[in-house]
Amino acid sequence: MALSLVLFAPCGLAQVRSDAADREAAVANVLIPIAGDVPGEFGARFQTDVTIANRTGVTTRIAIFWLPQGRSGSITVPVRTLTLPPSSTTLYPRFVSDRLGQTGLGAFIARAVHDDGSTNHDGRIDLFARIWTPARAGVGTYSQGIYGTTLTGPGTDDLQPIPAWIYGLRQDASFRTNYGIVNLAAEPRNFSIEVTGDGGSRYTREVVVPGASMIHEALPRDQHFGAVTIRIVIGYVIPPQVSLSWAGFGSSVDNFTGDAWYSKAQAAYRNNQP
Asked: CA 198 to CA 196: how far, in whole Å?
C-alpha cells in the first residue's frame, strides 16, 4: 500500500492506569508503531530516521524486533541487536533498510537485553522516529515525528485491552486520513474500526491483524467525513485475557502542502471500570 505520511499511536495493556495516553519515562521496552522505507503518493519515497537514547551509565545491548505490515514477525526473535555506549544518544538514518535490512512498512520494538537475550529490566532506553520524504518541489522535506511508546514489559503498553478512540483527524477535499493498528500479541486478533465524521458520515470495517504484525490503511477517498473520530475495538476472547496488547494510531495529511499530524489512540476509561 502506498504510504501517504503516517501517524502513530499507542495502545496495549499492562498496569491499570488512569493516564493511559501519557508518555512514561525511559524503560527497558519501547515501541515505534510505524516505520519503513516505502514509496508514497506523487513520487514520494518515505524513509525513517530513528534516534535511540541509552539513559543508563553503562553500555546497553538493544534487541530490535520487527513487526511487518500484513504478516507475522516476532516478539521473541530480534532482527538486529545494537550496542549503545553509556549515557548516549545515537541517530540511525534510514533505520529500516540500512540497520534492520527490511523493506516495506512495519512497527518495531526496541528492548534492552542481557548477553543471553533475556530482558534487561534495568535498561533505560527511549526512542524517536522521523518519517520523511523530499518535498515535491525538491526543496526541503515533508516529515512527521513518531514518539516512542513505553512498554512496561515484553508485549505490554499504555492502554488496556479495551476500546480506544483517535481524535483530531480530518478528511475532505483538502485532507486525507490514515489509521493503523499494531498487534503485539503472538496470535491473530480481530478488530472493529468505526469512523464517524462531524457531518454524520460513517464507515465501518472488520479486520484480522496477524500476530506480531501491523496494518496501515487509508479511509475511503470518496468519503468526505469532515472532522474525523475513529473508534477501534479489539475482539474479545473466551475466557477473557488481559494480555490482548495492541497499539492504534491515526494521521491526517494536507493534500496540497504535505503538512501532516498524528493522533494517539486513547482509552476512555480504566480497564477495571464497568
From this structure: 7
- End-to-end CA, the chain: 38
Q: How confident is the model at residue 241 (pLDDT cuts 50, 70, 90)?
A: low
Show the cell assigned to 262. Answer: 498524528
Concatenated DSSP letters for 60-108? EEEEEEEEEBTS---SSS-SEEEEE-TTEEEEETTIIIIIS---EEEEE
3-state secondary structure (DSSP) of residue 192? strand
Tell me 18's DSSP state: S
Nearest Cα neighbor of 66 from 107, 95, 99 is 107
**Does residue 210 have a cis bond before it (omega within 30 degrees)?**
no
- Specify the DSSP class assigned to residue 182: E
Q: What is the pTM of this model?
A: 0.85
Integer angstrom CA distances of residue 94 from 138, 165, 248: 19, 31, 24
CA distance 37 to 9: 19
The predicted structure's pLDDT at residue 270:
56
